[in-house]
Amino acid sequence: MASKAQLRAAHHQISRHMAGSGAADLPVHTCYVDATAHTVVVGMPHSALPSAPDLRDTLDIDPDVPLTFVAAEPAVRHAGKRQPNSPLVGGLLISTDGEGTLTVVGNMNGSKGFLTAGHVVGKTGVPVFQPYESNDYNYFAGTASKVSDVDGGTTDCAFVESPSDLGVRQIWKAADAYYQITDTGDPAVGAKVYMQGSQKPDEQSGVVAQTGVTVTFDDGTTKVNQCFGTYTGIPGDSGAPVYAKTGGGDQDVTLLGMHIGGQSVDLRGILDDVSPPTGQGGDYSIFTPWNSIANDLQVILDI
Fold this sequence. Notes:
Blueprint (H helix, E strand, L loop, with lengths): L3 H16 L10 E5 L4 E6 L9 H6 L7 E5 L16 E3 L2 E3 L3 E3 L3 E4 L2 E7 H4 L5 E3 L10 E8 L9 E5 L4 E9 L2 E8 L7 E4 L8 E13 L5 E8 L11 E5 L6 E13 L18 E7 H8 L1 E2 L3
Parallel strand pairs: 2-3, 4-12, 13-18
Antiparallel strand pairs: 1-2, 5-6, 7-8, 7-20, 8-11, 9-10, 10-11, 12-13, 14-15, 14-17, 15-16, 16-19, 17-18, 18-19
Protein name: Serine protease
C-alpha cells in the first residue's frame, strides 16, 4: 500500500502538470488525495477519460500509488455582478470616474462592444472597466466610441468598443447563470418589467406606468419618448437592461430598454386608483425604449 508521502508526492506531480503547458494535451480539472479511500482522485473531461492511463506514464507517477479517474468539468467562479466577470453580459457593474451598469453586448457598424448610459461615460475616448479600475489587475473592458448626447443623438446612451470576451444576448441572472434575450419589444403600460442593475444583489421588478414621456433632467437636458417604471432604481444602476420575462422558459427574456434615471412626480389625489408608487408621491424610474437606442446608435444585438 502506498504511503501518505507517496500519495502526496503523486498529488504534487499532477498539480504541477495542471498548471503547466502539458495540461492542454492531457487536461486535468481537479486532483486531491482521498485519505479515506487511500487514493489520488483525478478529474478529467469525459472525452479525455479514455486517455487517463497515459497520465501515469507521462508524469512517471509511482506505480504503487492508486489513481481514481473521474469525469470533471472545469471549475467556474461564482462571480457577483460587482465582481470581475467573463464573458461580459448585461447587468454587470462597470466603472469610469463613477459607477454604472452594462446594458447588453452589441455590434455598431461592425465594431463589437457593449452599451451603457451616455452619462456613465460622459464622452468618447473614456476607458471603461469591469468592475473597476485596478493597479493590480487588468480590468479594462473597453473604450467609449460613441456617446449619443455628445454625437447629436436623442437618447442618453453610449457604445463601448471592447476587446473582452462578450456574452451575446445575455443578461446576468445569478452566478454563472444568464437570461437569454430571445426578442426585443415595445414597452406597454401595465406590463410587468424587470431591471438588472449593478447596485443591488437582486433584480428589481415593477410595471410600466407611462410611455411617451418627455423629461428634463437636472443637468438641463431634455429627452423625449421615455418610459416611467415602478421598479426601484438607484444611482449606479444607469445603463441597466429593462426586460420582460417571456414565459418560454425561466431564462428567456424580451429586451425592452435601458434604465437611465428617476423622477419624482406628485400625483397624490390625482391618480390614486393606480398602483403605487404612482399614487404615493410618484417616485418613478425612467428607462429608454430599446428601439430608440437601436436607431440612435445603429446597433444590433448579434455580434
